[in-house]
Design brief:
Elements (H helix, E strand, L loop, with lengths): L22 E5 L4 E4 L1 E5 L2 E5 L7 E5 L3 E6 L13 E3 L11 H15 L3 H12 L5 E3 L11 H6 L8 H18 L4 H10 L1 H7 L6 H30 L1
Antiparallel strand pairs: 1-2, 1-6, 3-4, 4-5, 7-8
Helix pairs in contact: 1-2, 1-4, 2-7, 4-5, 5-6, 5-7
Length: 236
């Protein structure tokens, strides 16, 4: 299942970080997630993913290997990665919403990846800042490390079109490597495939787990907003 390959499917994969987690659910397919509570509904199990009643996922009961009770973790403040913005140069300093959409749509079509997933990665990586640079030296909208950018054929990581093309190609390679497991591909994008391979799953790094959850939440938000808009339009 590829990502545009995903279409309008809402993601809830591998890791979810609600504000307060009381249950740790381990699925038979190897995925794990935290939820605030578990409710059995016949042959279905409802996992509440936050403090509200509207944020939940239903699964077949036979999909769950076991449920473990865990103490509530301290609240985790999720913020964008620290970045600094360089002075303007010959490269584009900012993109309009239309320009960003056009570049993400083109990259998504080229690699058969949902545009909303790419937009969610851009938001998590740089907040949409074209000339963002992390303390580790990652550059641009999709925060490419210089070595990775070179391997991907990106000559100027601060050119939005090159950065998005390179970042999307890298994400595509990770999705292929992990058989379209979105959570693992995102974890590898953040922490490196070596870390994912070492731990045979999402590494136990708070930053990486928060990153994966942040991208998936943003993707879900975009899909739900689009669905709501579509429903309203149909009702008129």
């Amino acid at each position: 299942m590829a990502l545009a390959r995903l279409g309008g499917v809402v993601l809830c994969l591998a890791v979810v970080l609600p504000a307060r987690a009381a249950e740790h659910v381990i699925l038979k397919n190897g995925f794990e997630m935290d939820c605030s509570r578990v409710e059995i509904m016949g042959d279905r199990v409802r996992l509440y993913l936050g403090s509200g009643e509207a944020n939940y996922q239903d699964l077949a009961s036979d999909a769950i290997a076991r449920v473990e009770t865990v103490p509530d973790p301290p609240p985790v403040a999720v913020a964008l990665p620290p970045v600094r913005v360089m002075e303007k140069s010959a490269a584009v300093a900012a993109l309009t919403k239309a320009e960003m959409h056009q570049m993400l749509a083109h990259a998504g079509e080229t690699h058969n990846i949902d545009e909303d997933l790419l937009a969610s990665v851009v938001r998590a990586e740089s907040g949409g800042q074209v000339r963002a640079v992390s303390r580790a030296g990652a550059q641009g909208l999709m925060q490419l490390m210089p070595g990775t950018a070179t391997q991907l054929g990106v000559k100027d990581a601060f050119r939005p079109d090159e950065n998005i093309a390179g970042g999307t190609a890298y994400l595509d390679a990770l999705l292929t490597r992990y058989h379209d497991n979105v959570a693992l591909a995102l974890a590898a994008y953040n922490a490196g495939p070596e870390a994912v391979d070492k731990y045979h799953g999402i590494p136990p790094y708070r930053e990486t787990r928060a990153y994966v959850a942040r991208v998936i939440r943003e993707f879900n938000r975009r899909k739900l907003a689009a669905h709501t808009t579509e429903q309203v339009a149909r009702a008129k």
